[in-house]
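Entry:
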Amino acid sequence: MKNQSVISNIDWITILIYMCLVVMGWMNIYSASLPVEETSFFDISQTYGRQILFIILTIPLIFILLSVDAKIFEKYAVIFYGLGILSLMGLFVLGKTIKGQTNWYQFGGFGMQPSEFVKTTTALFLAKVVSDSQMNLSNFRSQIIALAILGFPILLIMMQPDAGSALIFIAIVFVLFREGLPGWYLWTGFISIALFILSLIVEPVFLTIFTLIVMLIHYFFNRSIKRNPVVYAVIFVAITGFIFSVDYVYENVLEPHQKDRINVLIGEDIDMQKEGYNLNQSMIAIGSGGWLGKGYLEGTQTKGGFVPEQHTDYIFTTVGEEWGFAGSATVITLFVILFLRIIYLAENQKTKFSRIYGYCVATYLFIHFFVNITMLIKLFPTIGVPLPFFSYGGSSLWAFTILLFIFLKLDANKVNEW
């Protein structure tokens, strides 16, 4: 009876979109990694062959997730979170260092990136804690608890170091904002990022003067708030200190590759054969597709191997080149429908736990999608963030599948949560 209940109540629209994205993702991986000599689709010595194996293994994984009692995810959330934290800590002892980052476990010819799975365990535990009747995110103590749950995995991931994965976790602050976290947290984050970028473009003195003018206008003309000159003075001093510290942080704290990525974003002089090569080639590939693309398996940039790591972080360049604007718009539309569908389902949950977890799922998927697409067209710094269900890799595919289908299980179980 329980299995019948799950089948009848599960959201098949979301599953259909999931299946479309996975299939389309594999098609592009196949095109991006097709060897000169034809081999079997199931040749695991090839990237596309291994991806088919990963896809096949998601089938029993999905059945397991939909078969277990939905209450397990909430009841044992703290255990899942603890195991996730241990998996991150274990990297410092057993992890393999690749390109300066120790964020993978290696098992023979296969690897596993634990941070991908910790996104789910963190979402479950955060949903469990925030949904507690004694938690109120307008209260400072509750804020500290919620932010600490997010902060612990972020700290461990930054130590690897893996800024891209850490950014994904930080985005969950949007979920906390939905649940009552004061808006000044978000504004502080946005303003800090904006000031950091502007401080690299504009002279600090001029930026400080501009900040002072804005704050004076806000102080004298905003009569709807209680104006305290001491508070304004403290904020101005803090902002000024931040502005004048950016240059030191940029020169002495950031790694060379991080500075290169920022230089690409702000338009500094860069060598297109070195630090700007990946971005330049991805933009050429996407732009060359035109309206309808060059045709499946006909991409010259793809065939020539001009775009590095095209089957992973740069997989969307294959879509742009071979499927053109029409194909790219179709893929983007599918993702947008998926995000909106998850948000719709989250809003209709019967429990706060399921709603918060649903919003975490939507946020994780959206921020991956947004960063991956925008970094290919020079609207965001280049960081290693896979495109959900599209980019090659067992860790990302299984992690996104687990993340999504736990929510679908919770959603299918909502009829029993009255």
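The radius of gyration is 23 Å.
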